[in-house]
Design a protein that fits this description.
Layout: E1 27-30, E2 44-46, H1 64-67, H2 77-92, E3 97-106, E4 112-120, E5 123-130, E6 135-143, E7 149-156, E8 168-173, H3 182-185, E9 195-200, H4 208-213, H5 216-230, E10 244-247, E11 250-251, H6 258-265
Parallel strand pairs: 7-10, 7-11
Antiparallel strand pairs: 1-2, 3-4, 3-9, 4-5, 5-6, 7-8, 8-9
């Protein structure tokens, strides 16, 4: 808590001339009543110390009413999603889950999408979860052994791009972008993109809980060792395919960006309360 402008301990000083015994008007704030037959005492005024305090939130730039629009912040929402995914993995593969994260995926058209990420012993799972209906809509499985490159860095755009974003992100490659077809490259709904790009979720500073699961560095610190372990064969030696972790700009090849401009400004990729519609 920040305390600003505390003047406690400072006392007012009265200025008197030599031989002047009459109290200053800054000495008291009271009127003393004398006997009815006597002249009333002169009014004596004093000023009490002024104390001003200003309290700031832990994050002065965070507005709580805005974060409550995200359904993931509602009580029990993220916990329900985690339990649903744990049950699904236990039934399908039985793999051990190493961690959950809530991040924002940025597709090849610069559209933001709310995603839950899970790292198991053998797979990276990218989940599209509906926090309104509390149900898993889509689940993408990526074998950790197929990942060969991870890039960390700031976002970069072509010089003529009209919709650029600031900040840093993480890109995971499990296939070569050069082998991507022209159709899938220019299709905003394509599911054949051989990489995925992530950045931190907008609600990361709302609480300690979300700060932990929305932190990109925490996700990276778990993902890299998991991939390195998956690249090892049973004898313990690594295959010739090695993981490369690079620090370089992350290129997003969008030019007009009208679709992402409308979608990202209105947070269409998030489970968000959008107010009442109608009359």
């Amino acid at each position: 808590m920040s305390t600003i402008g505390s003047f406690e301990g400072f006392q007012p000083v009265s200025l008197k001339q030599e031989g002047d015994d009459q109290p200053s008007e800054t000495d008291q704030l009271s009127v003393e009543e004398g006997d009815p037959g006597k002249d009333p005492m002169p009014k004596q005024i004093s000023r009490q110390p002024s104390v001003t305090k200003s309290t700031l939130y832990p994050n002065p730039y965070h507005r709580p009413y805005i974060s409550r629009k995200y359904f993931v912040t509602r009580p029990g929402a993220i916990e329900t999603a985690m339990e649903d995914l744990k049950g699904h993995i236990a039934k399908t593969s039985g793999e051990k889950i190493q961690g959950f994260w809530l991040l924002t995926e940025i597709d090849h058209w610069n559209n933001e999408k709310e995603r839950i990420l899970l790292v198991t012993d053998k797979n990276l799972l990218i989940c599209k979860y509906d926090f309104i209906m509390l149900s898993c809509v889509q689940l993408q499985w990526i074998p950790l052994g197929a990942v060969y490159r991870i890039c960390l860095g700031k976002f970069a755009f072509p010089g003529m791009s009209l919709d650029k974003r600031q900040g840093e992100g993480l890109r995971i490659y499990w296939g070569s972008p050069e082998q991507q077809s022209l159709l899938s490259r220019w299709n905003p709904w394509s599911t054949e993109v051989p990489y995925a790009t992530f950045t931190e979720h907008p609600i990361r500073h709302t609480s300690e809980k979300f700060l932990e699961i929305c932190k990109l560095s925490g996700f990276t610190s778990k993902l890299v060792p998991a991939i390195q372990n998956a690249l090892k064969n049973p004898s313990g030696s690594e295959r010739q395919k090695r993981l490369m972790v690079l620090t370089e700009p992350i290129l997003i090849e969008t030019y007009m960006g009208l679709m992402s401009f409308i979608g990202n400004r209105n947070k269409l990729g998030y489970s968000l309360a959008r107010g009442s519609i109608g009359f």
